């Protein structure tokens, strides 16, 4: 399995969890929304950690590019962490409309971010890390499934 295929699969998993949270909030079920958003947030944070601790450093080591696409992805991760925190705060306060607004902002940011990773960064990783990609995917798999 390629890095792109594996990470794209994890993006879809996170998307499904996000959709469940948004649906629950839209239905007015804040208990279910909190649970689903918590699962989504945990999955996304594991995904970010896998990228930041394993994938990005391997790519940077191989290419020598430390100020390029991985730096942009790290900055976008920080933006999404802030949006997730604001969404959690809205859910904890019982402010469904605020949550849905934060969720819309987060969705747009995630979609743009994921497109860059799936169409640019991950293919670059597969190309640059070709000989090490299989072992890297297995390491990422264990990291993403660890929690």
TrEMBL record:
<dbReference type="Pfam" id="PF01814">
    <property type="entry name" value="Hemerythrin"/>
</dbReference>
<dbReference type="GO" id="GO:0005886">
    <property type="term" value="C:plasma membrane"/>
</dbReference>
<dbReference type="InterPro" id="IPR012312">
    <property type="entry name" value="Hemerythrin-like"/>
</dbReference>
<feature type="domain" description="Hemerythrin-like">
    <location>
        <begin position="3"/>
        <end position="125"/>
    </location>
</feature>
<protein>
    <submittedName>
        <fullName>Hemerythrin HHE cation binding domain-containing protein</fullName>
    </submittedName>
</protein>
């Amino acid at each position: 399995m390629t890095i792109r295929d594996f990470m794209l699969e994890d993006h879809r998993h996170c998307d499904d969890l996000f959709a469940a949270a948004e649906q629950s909030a839209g239905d007015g079920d804040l208990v279910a929304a909190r649970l689903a958003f918590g699962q989504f947030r945990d999955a996304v944070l594991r995904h970010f950690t896998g990228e930041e601790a394993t994938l990005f450093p391997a790519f940077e080591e191989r290419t020598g590019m430390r100020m390029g696409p991985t730096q942009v992805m790290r900055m976008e991760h920080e933006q999404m962490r802030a949006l997730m925190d604001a969404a959690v705060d809205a859910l904890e306060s019982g402010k469904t409309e605020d949550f849905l607004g934060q969720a819309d902002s987060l969705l747009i940011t995630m979609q743009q971010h994921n497109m860059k990773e799936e169409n640019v960064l991950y293919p670059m990783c597969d190309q640059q890390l070709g000989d090490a990609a299989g072992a890297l995917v297995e390491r990422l798999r264990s990291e993403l499934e660890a929690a």
